[in-house]
Write a structure and sequence with these properties.
A hairpin with a 2-residue loop joins strand 7 and strand 8. The mean pLDDT is 93. This protein is of the alpha/beta class and 369 residues long. The chain contains 13 helices and eleven strands. Strands 1-2-9-6-5-3-4 form a seven-stranded mixed sheet, sandwiched between helices. The structure holds nicotinamide-adenine-dinucleotide and zinc ion (ZN). The site of nicotinamide-adenine-dinucleotide (NAD) has 27 residues, from helix 2, helix 4, helix 5 and strand 8.
Length: 369
């Protein structure tokens, strides 16, 4: 039986990319893949833990439609998201006889997706690839939009390319094996989607967080569809992140600073974004840009995802300085994405230093809640 599912489209300069979403989809992957590239050679890129959980299901799905998958494995720890991993995989592709007609399939979280995407962008000057994300962050964020890349010593994601996947296959069933902390980290990004542009998604989280946390199939499906739709809409209007796409950074200006100050260890990225959304919302409150009711709603939903790990105890001016340390940001560009109401944010520059510092000090009392 074919699984129930939805299809959404991401429209970019390189064409239309379908995002298929449905529980059990992996077991039917071949049917979907066949529509894209009949007769091509397929290479799955994954990590040993993800492959051992979901690889055989994907293989089965591919075989049932007569597709043969070769497999390339990589270590998916963040510190291995480096150019030498891309190089090693490229050498392996070459040894396997992959030519420009090869198509890669990235099965894993954002690390696998970003590395495999960059490999696809650069191998023989570009081959096709399909994203098969297995984390919540992957399914609603990193697999959509075509940003690929690896880290440099000097910062995250500083070497990369825009390269749109040919398709994205989202099987919510894969989330059943995801550690709860990783799942929650992804939920903060879903909250972000609700705040920046989808009040109905936000209400779903407000009313049904316990079902979402329990992995309820219907709630999960709706949540995935709405989050992907929002990201697809934004990417379609601003593929190269010139302006509009920056609203996706709600919670990230502060969040990146918190991550860097904890050396990317104490906090998962999503958790840093959770704190970042609280900080941005408090800042908007201080600047009189948002009602008290909206502030309460946003903070309540962020907190309902789970207990956030404590922030490092650092002087506010140290965190403030870190806001400017992002290598991709010029000083004059410091811009905060601030909520106006649930479903609408503004890009605000020229925020007084004193207001940011006061917000950071206030966060200390938010921690005590
Ligand atoms: N390209 C983009 O637009 C974009 C957007 C957001 C994040 N990212 C990148 O994504 C990365 C983070 O990705 P992530 O949050 O998906 O984490 P991840 O790729 O680091 O995976 C987290 C952990 O979950 C494991 N895992 C993955 N799927 C699993 C499953 N189904 N069951 C059990 N374990 C599973 C992995 O082995 C890993 O240990 C970062 O490098 C970030 O820069 C990219
Ligand atoms: Zn993020």
């Amino acid at each position: 039986m074919k699984p129930r599912g939805s299809v959404l489209w991401v429209r970019t300069s390189s064409g239309r990319c379908p995002v298929w979403i449905g529980a059990g989809l992996l077991g039917y992957a071949g049917r979907y893949l066949k529509r894209l590239r009949p007769g091509r050679r397929w290479f799955a890129v994954s990590s040993p833990p993800v492959w051992s959980l979901w690889g055989s299901e994907l293989q089965r799905g591919a075989r049932s439609a007569g597709l043969q998958l070769d497999t390339l494995l990589m270590d998916d720890r963040e510190e291995k998201k480096r150019l030498d991993t891309v190089e090693r995989l490229a050498e392996e592709l070459l040894r396997c006889g992959a030519d420009r007609g090869a198509t890669l399939l990235a099965l894993g979280g954002g690390v696998v997706g970003d590395v495999a995407g960059f490999l696809a962008a650069s191998y023989m000057r570009g081959v096709d690839y399909v994203q098969v994300p297995t984390t919540l962050v992957g399914q609603i964020d990193s697999a959509i939009g075509g940003k690929t890349g690896v880290n440099l010593r000097g910062g995250k994601n500083l070497l990369g390319a825009f390269h749109q996947p040919r398709a994205v296959l989202v099987d919510p069933g894969t989330l059943s094996t995801l550690p709860l902390r990783e799942y929650r980290a992804g939920l903060y990004e879903v909250v972000k989607c609700g705040v920046i542009g989808d009040p109905a998604l936000f209400r779903l989280l407000e009313r049904h967080m316990s079902s979402v946390l329990a992995g309820d199939e219907r709630a999960l499906h709706t949540m995935l569809v709405r989050s992907v739709r929002l990201k697809a809409r934004i990417v379609a209007r601003d593929e190269r992140e010139r302006n509009l796409r920056r609203v996706l950074n709600f919670g990230h200006t502060f969040g990146h600073a918190f991550e860097a100050l904890t050396n990317y260890r104490g906090l998962r990225h999503g958790e840093a974004v959770g704190w970042g959304m609280i900080a941005a919302t408090r800042l908007a409150e201080r600047l009189g840009r948002v009602s008290r009711e909206t502030v309460e709603r946003i903070i309540t939903v962020v907190r309902s995802v789970g207990a956030l790990p404590a922030l490092p105890r650092l002087p506010a001016d140290r965190v403030y300085a870190q806001l400017f340390a992002d290598k991709k940001r010029r000083e004059a560009d410091l811009c905060f994405i601030l909520p106006r109401r649930v479903g609408q944010v503004d890009m605000v520059s020229d925020v007084p230093r004193a207001a940011v510092l006061a917000t950071l000090r206030r966060l200390a009392s938010d921690q005590a809640l």
